Each structure stands twice: as structure tokens, then as C-alpha cells.
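In this section we walk through a basic example: taking a raw amino acid sequence and producing a predicted 3D structure, encoded as C-alpha cells. The instruction is simple. Fold the sequence below.
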Amino acid sequence: MHASSRPSAGLEIERSTPPMEARLVDHLPEGEGWQYEPKWDGFRCLAFRDKGDVALMSRSGKPLERYFPEVAAALRDLPESRFVVDGELVVPVEGVLSFAALQARLHPAASRIAKLARQTPAQFILFDCLQVRGRVHRDAPLAERRAALEQFAGALPESIFLSPATDRVETARAWLAQTGGALDGVIAKRRDEPYRPGERAMFKHKVQRTADCVVGGFRTDKTGCGIASLLLGLYDEAGLLHQVGYSSSFAAAARMEMFDRLAPLEGASAFTGKAPGGASRWTKPGKSTAWTPLEPRLVAEVAYDQVTGDRFRHGTTFRRWRPDKAPSQCTFDQLAAELRPEELVEILAQVPG
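The resulting C-alpha cell sequence is shown next.
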């Protein structure tokens, strides 16, 4: 018996324990001794159960069970009465994983949370364990933890399921290729390493996604003669151009060059759908929200990580101008949509390896 698998009379893992973190890498590590898993796009969560007491703890150590009562109830109904497992909370809505629906759960009104739990129930995807079946596995190698988790996952309801895993890098690459960008990326872990709370002891390779967008406007920098950000748009099926995000962080020389390129295109607003707004509660005091509209003639290729609703969740990275692309080709159907977790699991299971 491994020393970390000693019997436990209760929960030896404190609720204040932070999850193991990942370090971003450009390429997946290869060689013997690696395990690869899908990178899910949700809320990271450590789930604790000690008989009737269930706690869902966020990455920052905040309790989440009041926001996801249906997940807490499902964990409370499992045959095992004591465990600590690591996973991801997700909310599928109409066939896709909705980060906006996930964020909507963080609401102060219990009645609102209860309604959302009924309308769009959350799911919990398991990928590691610190304590299960009465034994502590935190310091055990991943190979042992995974075996314990698979045994634990033998009797799970539909709302809780085991994330796939493989020891073949070819299979991990095939996951990304066959899911059409539906995965957020792949996590790589050493099979001989223990669980290291709070440390960046695993690696994540994120999917590189790009989109061609209409440049519908810009904001200038403090000099007034350089571009601080490009305002990006995509056309919907009705032909309306909606602002979907921005691209910024340009070098000084690029700011000037972009200004010279864009200034001749100043005109009426190209955004015929959702347009850039004014200040919000997140706007820094004193920061100008003024923007200059442009004729919809330039197309920029940008790299992005995630889409929430109909917008890029974060700022995008400018790649290049696309003079070969017509603005009318910049439509929403470029954006990678995520599948339901159970559909992804089915796809991943079909990949050899």
C-alpha cells in the first residue's frame, strides 16, 4: 500500500486546500509517463463530502454549493459518504457549454439560483481525487489516483461523469482535430507525480483559434495619433454587423501605422447591430470610452481563446490584415462552438488509443 493511501477516519483534506494549477505551454510534452486530459471550460471546483455535509470550493477558496445546489445534491446522493474530488463545473445550454450561464449562477437571490438550476442544470466533470473510498490519495502518483477515481466513478448519475484520459500524445492531438475546436485545450500531467495543491505542476496546451473580423472602429491612445484598440465586428444571418470584441496591446510603431491606415476610412458607424457602448461599472475612472467609427472595408485576422454569448470573452491578438477577404465573409459561423460534455466524451472515446 502506498503511504499516501492510508485509511482515513474522516476527511483529512482541508477545505482551504487549493487545486493544483497548470502552466501554459506552446506544445504538448511528449515521452513516457504522461497522461493527457481534455481541458474543460468551466469553474474549477474541489468537491468535499463528509457524510451529509457537501462543500464545493472554488479555485480562490470560496464556497460554491449555494450556487449549484443540484450538483451538491447529486454528490450527497452518491453511495460513497466520504471523498474529496477535483473537477470542473459546466452548464450546457441548447447544445453548447455556456460560460455566461455559468456566471449567471453567481446570483445573490436563492430563488433565482433555484430557477436556473431547474432550467439549465449544471454538470460536474471529474478528473482527479485527493481522498476517496476512505483513503487519502493526495500524495500518491497520478496513476494510483486515476485508478481510484475510475473505481469511484462506477456509480455516477448523469450529471456527474469522468473526464477521459490517455497516455498517448497522438490521441490527445486527435481529440483536438476531431472535435473541431470544441475543446479548450489539453492538460498534460506526469503519471508518477503526486497532487501538488496550489502549484503549477501540470501543463496546459490551449487551442489556437482565429477569426476574420471587420474593423468597424477604433479607439486612440493618449497621444491621439495612435491606435489603442481595434473594434471588431461580425455579421449575423440578417446582415447586421455586431461588435464582438477588440484587439489591443500594439507596439508604438504599429499604433502609428494603423492610424495612418484607418484614418481615411472614418465615416458613419459600420455597426448596424450591437455597437460599442459607453462606460460600465468595470471601466477605470477617467478612462475615455470615445471611439471613431469606420466604413466596413478592412478585415483583420485575430486569435482568440473563448466566446461567451456572442462576444469574445477576452481581448484578442491581432495577427494580420486580410486584404483577400471580403468584409461580408466575416460571419459568426467562424466561431468555434463547444459541444455538450457527454457528446464530447462520446467523440473522444471513438478516437483510437
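Looking at the output, two observations stand out. Residues 1-8, 279-283 have pLDDT under 50 and may be disordered. The two ends are 29 Å apart (CA to CA). In the next section we compare this with other chains.
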